[in-house]
Design a protein that fits this description.
Largest sheet: 7 strands, parallel
CATH topology of the largest domain: Rossmann fold
Oligomer: single chain
Shape: elongated
CATH class of the largest domain: Alpha Beta
Number of strands: 12
Structural class: alpha/beta
CATH architecture of the largest domain: 3-Layer(aba) Sandwich
Strand content: 15-25%
């Protein structure tokens, strides 16, 4: 019997070896393309049943070149890099890794929020520039601050639990989930209007793209802050730059950008009121291991049970050829 084939595309910040071993033990032949280039992927995976990706775009055109493909397994919570509808129409599962780095991402957002609210990046910049005098900008007392959390899935709820004891009020909005205890549920416009810091914890979709824009930023109290550890596309970065320049926002902390890695001319890269990290909120020694293993477990589950552990679509044509 021919062994099924699994192909790794771009391997980003993780060692695929534990996943390779798991797949091989399940009977797979494993290849590593080490590329996000569609032509390279199509060549390496032309006879593959499973594609294990980092941030490689997987669109309808690429799917059409992979006639044997039955599952695309992402190595992240987000799966916006895959055309899930096109995959479903072709009988292909898409899976994600929803819980490998909940603690890491929530903690990263928490650290960014505290850093902004205490002005640490800006104080550090001033000292390094030779200015020892405290600026006229005086931070709010944390216990009198209102924080808004947009999206209350695993990560958003964990972030809310971390910041709730430190601040005065936590507001929450989620179009699908109930807010946790201790979080005040409000409509999105009210959340923007009342929050002195907003942290984003939503997937990127047609409905959430550009959620933070000129209109929503104008609702926020002057001098407030924004944290984004989710997806860069949630934010209109032109509007964000204008809000920072005008003082409408006092600062932003971004782990994600619309284009990654960013161009040197990206307004966010050189902006003095922006704290950046390189899409690293997810990272720890433990999460790097868990991402790889859980991604491979989705493929093994499909192979044995005809369904991945964490599916994000449902194929319209069932394929039971594992």
């Amino acid at each position: 019997m021919t062994r099924p084939i699994a192909v790794y595309t771009d391997v980003v910040g993780t060692d695929p070896q534990p996943g390779i071993e798991l797949l091989e033990a399940a009977g797979f032949e494993v290849r590593v393309a080490s590329s996000a280039d569609p032509a390279m992927i199509a060549q390496t995976a032309q006879d593959a049943q499973a594609l294990l990706i980092g941030y490689s775009p997987v669109d309808a055109e690429l799917l059409d070149r992979l006639g044997e493909l039955r599952i695309v397994a992402t190595q992240s919570v987000g799966f916006d890099m895959v055309d899930t509808e096109a995959a479903a129409h072709r009988g292909i599962w898409v899976s994600n890794v929803p819980a490998a780095a909940t603690e890491e991402v929530a903690t990263h957002a928490f650290a960014m929020a505290l850093s902004l609210m205490r002005g640490l990046p800006f104080l550090d910049r001033d000292v390094r520039a030779g200015n020892w005098n405290v600026s006229n900008e005086k931070p709010r007392r944390l216990s009198e601050t209102t924080v808004g959390v947009v999206g209350l899935g695993r990560i958003g709820a964990r972030f809310a639990s971390l910041i709730r004891p430190a601040v005065g009020t936590v507001l929450g909005f989620d179009p699908f989930l109930d807010v946790p205890d201790g979080v005040e549920s409000v409509a999105l416009p009210e959340l923007f209007a009342r929050s002195e810091l907003i942290s984003l914890h939503l997937p990127l979709s047609a409905g959430t793209a550009g959620l933070v824009n000129a209109a929503t930023l104008a609702l926020m109290p002057r001098g407030s802050f924004l944290v984004n550890v989710s997806r860069g596309g949630l934010v209109d970065h032109g509007a964000l730059a204008h809000a920072l320049d005008s003082g409408q926002l006092g600062g932003a902390a971004l782990d994600v950008l619309a284009v990654e890695p960013p161009d040197a001319a990206d307004a966010m890269v050189g902006h003095p009121r922006v704290l950046l990290s390189p899409h690293a909120a997810y990272l720890s020694a433990e999460s790097a291991r868990d991402y790889v293993l859980q991604q491979a477990e989705n493929v093994v589950s499909w192979h044995h049970r005809q369904i991945p552990k964490n599916p994000v679509n449902t194929p319209l044509v069932a394929q039971f050829t594992a």
